[in-house]
Amino acid sequence: MQGKRILVGVTGSIAAYKSALLVRLLVKAGAEVQVIMTESATQFITPLTLATLAKRPVVSQFVNDSTGAWNNHVDLGLWADALVVAPASAHTLARCAHGFCDDLLSAVYLSAKCPVFFAPAMDLDMYRHPTTLENLDRLESFGNTLIRAEHGELA
User: Which domains occur in the chain, in start order?
Assistant: First the structure.
């Protein structure tokens, strides 16, 4: 992972706390990590936690609230060697599967020129719902990689 540029997308799931360990391990392996959080993700883990571990500010909006700077989704998508959305909520999976880009993370996904990995994390009934399964199949058909839970809890 030395020198690789990894975007980590964190979404609104109870499993968001696990993203801290992911970021820590990626940085420890020598990767440059930029975290993108959805608004709902901030209800589960603080941007400060992930910024501290990534050693750079977290981005979550198209325009930075404190500086007014533009967080360019195209530049972020081009910067990355990989985009890892973990946890990937049912909501974000649906957004990405259908091209809705009303938040920074989904806009970066549509702009990304790198491999994309989704780690679905939600209640088992939500995961098994035909809509979610269809969205997962759709994302996979676009060439994305799904990191499915082999066992244990999804959230």
Answer: 5-146 (3.40.50.1950)
